[in-house]
Amino acid sequence: MSVVLSQKEIDELLASFGGGQAPAERGQEPKEDRPVRVYDFRRPDKFSKEHLRTLQMLHETAARHLTTAFSAYFRSMTQVSLNSVDQMIYSEFARSLASPGILAMLSLAPFPGNAVLDMAPSVTFEMIDRLLGGDGWQTERGRAVTEIEQAVVQKIVQVFLGGLREAWEGVADLSPLMVGLETNPMFAQVVGPNETCVMMGFAVRLGQTRGSLNLCLPFVTLESVLPKLSAQQWIGAAKTGEEGGQTLARSLELAPLPLSVELGRADVSVRRLTSLAVGDVITLNAPSDRELVVYVGNRPKFVGRPGTIGSRLAIQITGLADQEEGVLE
Fold first, then answer.
1. Which tens digit of pLDDT belongs to each residue from 152-167?
2. Helical (H) or strand (E) element with 215
């Protein structure tokens, strides 16, 4: 007895032998192809967009802390801003390094592994010169740092790590430490060349000199803290109240303010002013026994008596100034 196949069974049988597909049934539309997303296995994206946004907010806060800390440390107006947050593999970061360079190896305990801070020679040599008593201008910059300069660089890196620690307070209690200094990029291999990293690029302006500080954080270092790197958790964990006030107070304590004392005032003609010589005396409008006004910035804050300490002039604070004394012009 012969078996009669239905049309549907015949179509399925032909499709199985021919490698094709059976015609769509009536009333059914063919499925659309899904879009294909290109993925480069040599450059895996291990940081999500949310991770990168949170890292950007964290290090923008670090840049603000560093602006205050560097200005106080170098006694000169210093501007630090976050320029970029880029995800890359370590070999790309290594190829961008100058040789000789200034590379600080960092430990960010309790995070595992090490990070790298690339310091542009242009601004680093100016920082070194200012700390050693110079005016900040260096003509010889295309060289490696000396042993004495390495000790100064370590102090600069400590200030940088202080700003980094304060910015990360809402996420992790960091104990950052500089563990080494390299001038050859070949000896700064903290992870494998194909390991994913994120690089924070800081732009630094000190006086008339501009440069950069590039912080490279490997994925293995940040992997344990990735669940906390969301904007909601970071903002929610930000410290407020009394502790936040203490942080603000510490930042304000680092802000430099000029202190000046007004001995008195006198009206002098231009003719007499141009004829002044060593030993001439100018009579002031203040008696010698009157307490002097001490100005903080250009505002009267204290009163005191003049004197000397050794060979230096000094002022002894005796009380608070009358706020109606006026602004120092």
1. 999 999 999 999 999 8
2. strand 209-218
